[in-house]
Amino acid sequence: MKQTSDKLIIWIIILTQFASPFMFSGVAITLPQMGRELDASAVALGLVESVYLGLSAALLLPMGRIADATSREVLFKIGLVGYAICTFTISLLPDIYTVILVRAVQGIFAAFMMATGMAIISHKVPKEQLGRTMGFCIGAIYAGLSAGPLIAGWVTEHLGWRAVYILTFVPLAISTALAVWILPHQWKPMEEKFDWFGSLLICISIGLLIFGSASLHHGHGGFLITAGVVVLGLFFALQSKLTHPLLDLQAMKANKDFSHALITQLFMYAGAFGVTFLLGLYLQSVRHYSAQHAGQVLVLGPVLMAIMAPICGRLADRFNKRAMTSLGVTMAIISLALSLQLDDQSGLAILIAIILTQGLGFALFSSPNMAIVMSSVPPSQYSLASALGAKMRSLGMVLGMILITTITSVYLGEQSIDDAPQQYMQVMDTTFLIFIGLLAVACWLSVTTIKDHKVTTTHRETSNATEGN
């Protein structure tokens, strides 16, 4: 009976992994129509995605700590209920500023789910099957990414952008009902000390970076970005001095497998994930594709990810996980190199090559890297590891979106993309070059980890042989 219940819980969580990425990729397709209806600038449209990712990233680590000390299941259900309500609410909003505000609240509830979902699964799955299960989770995430452009494109074209949020609410409501029914709801009081000040600092820092990047064409944008960096530095400085830090830097430094996988994940998502956002606007505002046709093109990469992620998860249980992540980063670099060839007349062939290459890169990277993260810590730290893995993924997305928003602010200011398509092409070229640099760092980290791991393994084998003699 318990085994059946555990399997059902796992599948409920896998189902919910679909929702958040669907809202990211689906919203990206709706943005041009939303911008025209609500008279929003390109920078404001970027904020619709940035505040969502930023708030979820900022709160992932605090939520992971709280979940380990209280109840993962209760926090997961709170997040799911709040996320569903926000999704429906956005469909009713009259202007771009309230959309940005509710998207920020939705990002907060997303942090509840992301910090706990993988941790609940990791607690219920044997370690030798973790890669396969993570593959299903990653597959669900990429299924959401793939369904987003396709479904949202069709719905936006025929029913309008608001209908995307209304239809998304339906599976969220079903998932909420199932989660409330099957997941336990026992809450235990938090006994350990919690770093509330550190949590506040990380939220303030990310908020300053996001809004600073959006207002860089004004005089105060640079000041906000500088303040965000200073607050972030203060956060890290305080963490090393606290007895109960939000982020145990010493423990992370000691666990090299864990820390390297997290840092590699940060740079991978910073350098690759924003490409879909840029291409969605490019197809509709520069190439004048309809929302439906743009969705049909963008869906190819996530479909490949959804198919390949479970397969790569199985392979990660049998082969070298680090070699697979290195190959994945390399594929993403190739995709960006192809993206630099785009102009306002580019054909479908190069677009499809870019999207499929990136899709394969993410599939090769994501499942093995998350398996490394979760298998590097004891069960008592699963929520924290899950939160850190999701946080690095989200922080990478936020960093990518901050870069996009910053460069868009410099080249376009308050102009719309429809009014300045050539400036938007400059935004894309500049951003892609910076993304290649970030992925080069990720590739270097991944390859270095392979070499370090081989040296450590050889040293351990030599030591064992010496002790045996």
Automatic annotation (TrEMBL):
<feature type="transmembrane region" description="Helical">
    <location>
        <begin position="133"/>
        <end position="155"/>
    </location>
</feature>
<keyword id="KW-1133">Transmembrane helix</keyword>
<keyword id="KW-0812">Transmembrane</keyword>
<feature type="transmembrane region" description="Helical">
    <location>
        <begin position="258"/>
        <end position="283"/>
    </location>
</feature>
<feature type="transmembrane region" description="Helical">
    <location>
        <begin position="295"/>
        <end position="316"/>
    </location>
</feature>
<feature type="transmembrane region" description="Helical">
    <location>
        <begin position="161"/>
        <end position="184"/>
    </location>
</feature>
<feature type="transmembrane region" description="Helical">
    <location>
        <begin position="394"/>
        <end position="412"/>
    </location>
</feature>
<dbReference type="GO" id="GO:0016020">
    <property type="term" value="C:membrane"/>
</dbReference>
<feature type="transmembrane region" description="Helical">
    <location>
        <begin position="220"/>
        <end position="238"/>
    </location>
</feature>
<feature type="transmembrane region" description="Helical">
    <location>
        <begin position="196"/>
        <end position="214"/>
    </location>
</feature>
<dbReference type="InterPro" id="IPR011701">
    <property type="entry name" value="MFS"/>
</dbReference>
<feature type="transmembrane region" description="Helical">
    <location>
        <begin position="323"/>
        <end position="342"/>
    </location>
</feature>
<feature type="transmembrane region" description="Helical">
    <location>
        <begin position="432"/>
        <end position="450"/>
    </location>
</feature>
<dbReference type="GO" id="GO:0022857">
    <property type="term" value="F:transmembrane transporter activity"/>
</dbReference>
<feature type="transmembrane region" description="Helical">
    <location>
        <begin position="348"/>
        <end position="373"/>
    </location>
</feature>
<feature type="transmembrane region" description="Helical">
    <location>
        <begin position="43"/>
        <end position="62"/>
    </location>
</feature>
<dbReference type="InterPro" id="IPR036259">
    <property type="entry name" value="MFS_trans_sf"/>
</dbReference>
<feature type="transmembrane region" description="Helical">
    <location>
        <begin position="9"/>
        <end position="31"/>
    </location>
</feature>
<feature type="domain" description="Major facilitator superfamily (MFS) profile">
    <location>
        <begin position="9"/>
        <end position="454"/>
    </location>
</feature>
<keyword id="KW-0472">Membrane</keyword>
<dbReference type="Pfam" id="PF07690">
    <property type="entry name" value="MFS_1"/>
</dbReference>
<feature type="transmembrane region" description="Helical">
    <location>
        <begin position="100"/>
        <end position="121"/>
    </location>
</feature>
<feature type="transmembrane region" description="Helical">
    <location>
        <begin position="74"/>
        <end position="94"/>
    </location>
</feature>
<dbReference type="InterPro" id="IPR020846">
    <property type="entry name" value="MFS_dom"/>
</dbReference>
<protein>
    <submittedName>
        <fullName>MFS transporter</fullName>
    </submittedName>
</protein>
